[in-house]
Amino acid sequence: MMLSSVLQAIGLFVATNIDDIIVLSLFFARGAGQRGTTARILAGQYLGFAAILGAAVLVSLGAGAFLPPQVIPYFGLIPLFLGLWAAWQAWRGDNDDDDEAKVSGKNVTMWTVAAVTFANGGDNIGVYVPVFLSVGPAAVVAYCAVFLALVAVLVMLAKFVATRPSIAEILERWEHILFPIVLIGLGVVILVSGGAFGL
After folding, report:
1. 128-140: string of b/e by CB count within 10 Å (b at 16+)?
2. Regarding predicted confidence, which is higher, 181 or 111?
3. What is the per-residue DSSP string for 28-92?
4. Among 62, 40, 51, which Cα is nearest to 106's?
5. Confidence of residue 129 (pLDDT cuts 50, 70, 90)
6. Are 170 and 74 in contact (CB under 8 A)?
7. Buried b vs exposed e over 107-119: b needs ≥16 C-beta within 10 Å?
8. 103-to-31, 97, 127, 155 alpha-carbon distances in Å
9. Radius of gyration of the chain (CA)
10. Which of 12, 1, 20, 10 is nearest to 149 (CA)?
């Protein structure tokens, strides 16, 4: 029974988090050459994902008042605003050809990663809640433990992708354009798919 829960949890995690590899890879590209980037991204991903799990558990326990379903789509505003801010910074520093200047001001913070992770977790919450409702408390604990273990694997996989020479070169060259586009796109998709603002 426990092995079955673990295998189901692995499948569920992969299905709901595979898209995070792209976003995390861009975070690694953005923080390339800065000390502590991996630790900040890992901490931010854990913080954001713990908030997703916390919300899913609370909702499945009947505490929907803490996070009404109609509120979830509005979390799309977080990556949307972060993407617009990144686009503004890229546009403002567009004429700067100095490599050091390109790296400066691109420090990846734990809170940014956490905010984007949580905002991107609306679909996770939507999927996890019915699953948590259909299994016992022990299975919920097993799911959460497996999910939290796999967060580290996800971050390391994203780092691996971002540090492959050919991929890293593309990410380094286009990161200042890709990063805001991905975040803005993510925000718009979350808002539209959730029907925020009557969309």
Report:
1. bbebbeebeeebb
2. 111
3. HHHTTT-TTHHHHHHHHHHHHHHHHHHHHHHHHTT-TTTS-GGGGGGGGHHHHHHHHHHHHHHHH
4. 40
5. confident
6. no
7. ebebebbbbbbbb
8. 8, 11, 38, 21
9. 18
10. 10
Residues 6+ apart with CB under 8 A from 150: 10, 13, 17
Place of tokens 């595979």: 18
Instruction: Please count the helices (runs of H) and the strands (runs of E) in the chain.
Output: 9, 0
Place of tokens 């923080």: 31
Most distant pair of Cα atoms in the chain: their distance: 59
Hey, is 156 helix, strand or coil? helix
Which 3 state secondary structure label does DSSP give 95?
A: coil
Residue with token string 């567009």: 94
Q: Give the length of the chain.
A: 199
Burial 29-50 (b: 16+ CB within 10 A, else e): bbbbeeeebbebbbbbbbbbbb
pTM for the model stands at 0.73
Q: Return the closest-CA partner of residue 23 out of 144, 125, 123, 155.
A: 155
